[in-house]
Amino acid sequence: MPYPFVGNMELMGKQRSLELGTLVLPTLLLLLFYGARGSHCSLVHGNMTDRRSLLDFKEAITDDPGGALHDWNDGIHHCMWSGVSCSVRHPGRVTTLELGSLNLTGQITPSLGNLTFLRELNLTDNHFSGQLPSLNRLIKLEFLALRENILQGNIQDATIALANCSKLMWLEISSNMLVGSIPRKIGSFSNLVFLDLSQNNLTGTIPPTFSNITRLLYLFLGENQLEGNIPGELGQPSNMQALVLKGNKLSGRVPSELCNISSLILLDLGMNMLSGALPPNIGDTLLGLEWLYLGTNNLEGHIPDLLGNASALVHLDLSSNYFTGQIR
Q1: Which of 5, 89, 148, 312 is most buried, by the most CB atoms less than 10 A from its CB?
Q2: 272 domain residue, yes or no
Q3: 142, 162 in Cβ contact below 8 A?
Q4: pLDDT < 50 positions in the chain
Q5: Number of folded domains that form the chain
Q6: What is the per-residue pLDDT across 231-280, written as a single tens digit (0 to 9) for each?
Q7: Going edge to edge, which strands form the sheet with 227-228?
Q8: Domain for residue 306, yes or no?
Q9: Does residue 321 lie in a domain region?
Q10: Phi, psi of 52 (to 5 degrees)
């Protein structure tokens, strides 16, 4: 993401996940529970379902160039495998699977759906392909990051695969190959704080049911093939800080309801087919706005005088439109 204030969002999300109960076992505690790494005969493997599920996942990996999973073997307890963390209160139950940026190739196996204590799953920046399997048993899942892979399939099937993950706060599936229309049921993920579906091949319109996600702070839908108007309901998650819809085929006016989001720091609607005049109060209500990108649209009329009241504004792009009149 090219926006400076979003640069550490993944770290922030993981820190929040830790605050909400993701527990990482200290090495000494692991040794007490499971024995030393070299003591194969003394290992107590705890929950075998979680262990088998991880081994099934490993078997589906067709390329591991850095040997990231070399210690996933019978000589080591699975809670000490690279990228794996387990619960203290429920020994052997996997709570975190952290395998980002390892150049892994393969498919995400349905066996991960058996890790029913999993709170965080991070597979970003790998080469996972195929469809997202059903993860509906992961009712404790709070953090799911799958960006920069080559996942295929319909976005509606992906949301069905996560339908029971009602605790999800962070959902990141950007930079993949998903197709189809964003389903209205997206609004049922009512605990989402961060949602990134950008850089896929999504089509259709933006469903108004985003208004049901009242905790949503960051919404990224840019660089897809979305059409139609920007629904005014996007102005209803009143605490939103970033709204990025750039690089689609959106048309119609910039809805005045967006000016009700006084918490907005970033608004990027550039590279669409938006037309008409800007809401006259756009600068008077968005007093915390720092990034405003409206370039490469079909916007017209006068640049609102009140835009000058947006005193926090650092980056402003109104280029390649049809604005007239004087700049004040």
Answers
A1: 148
A2: yes
A3: no
A4: 11, 14, 16-46
A5: 1
A6: 999 998 789 999 999 999 999 999 999 999 999 999 999 999 999 999 99
A7: 227-228, 249-252, 273-276, 298-302, 322-324
A8: yes
A9: yes
A10: -65, -40
DSSP string, 27-63: HHHHHHHH--TT-GGG-----HHHHHHHHHHHHTEEE
CB contact at 8 A, 175 and 151: no
Model pLDDT, residue 327: 73
Task: Calculate Rg over the CA atoms of the chain.
Answer: 23
Question: What is the rounded CA–CA span in Å between residue 292 and residue 269?
Answer: 8
In a domain, 300, yes or no: yes
Contact in structure between 133 and 152 (CB atoms under 8 Å)? no
Residue 314 lies in domain: 229-328
Distances in Å between the Cα of 94 and the Cα atoms of 77, 201, 314, 326 are 12, 33, 44, 61
> Rounded to two decimals, what is the model's pTM?
0.88
Tell me, what's the pLDDT at 42? 30
What whole-number distance in Å separates Cα of residue 127 and Cα of residue 144? 16
Rounded Cα–Cα distance for residues 49 and 61 (Å): 19
pLDDT at 176: 98
Q: Are 89 and 133 in contact (CB under 8 A)?
A: no
